[in-house]
Amino acid sequence: RKMAEDAEPGTDRQLQMVGAFGRAARSADDIARLRAAFDGSQPYPGLELDQDLRWALLSALAALGDASDEEIASELARDDTNAGRERAFHARAARPTAEAKAEAWRLAVEEDGQPNAVIEALTSGWNRALDQSMLAEYVPQYFDALLPVWNSRSAAIRERLIGKEYPLAFYPLGLAGPELVETTEAWRAAHEDAPPG
Q1: How many helices (H) and strands (E) does the chain have?
Q2: 10 Å Cβ neighbour count for 35?
């Protein structure tokens, strides 16, 4: 937060620091600062509150549990474009609730037909969990979905869901540790005939 405040106004560094602050924000003071930048009551000097920055700030607030469905819908109405719809999917999936994570999973994994960019938005938002333990229940679901996804989806979609080229797919990397390694290796051992990818 301090680096964002101290960055030279109107520079790329300032924009990068504000974005980094949004991803690192945790406290009530952080939320208040992000909210003030989003609503314009305390802008960052020299930094234009354009649509990209509005979505970045709103997504940060959503991940912190400080953005409602109505607020996301309102922002989407303001930016009713393909990019706006993708950013709205991301913001909704980023919310720290079991319902938000379940809906992102349903839309991306259980339903078929979402465009590549929407899948990326859903997976990146889903992974934006401050408390990664809320994703623990998806570990068995992920492994159960591997072969059905591989066998029924296009190469581009399955890479975005499984994680071959996309580190923010649904593989629960935030839960990395001995238990996840053991689960992963057990699946591989039980599926030696699985496709190499």
Answers
A1: 11, 0
A2: 18
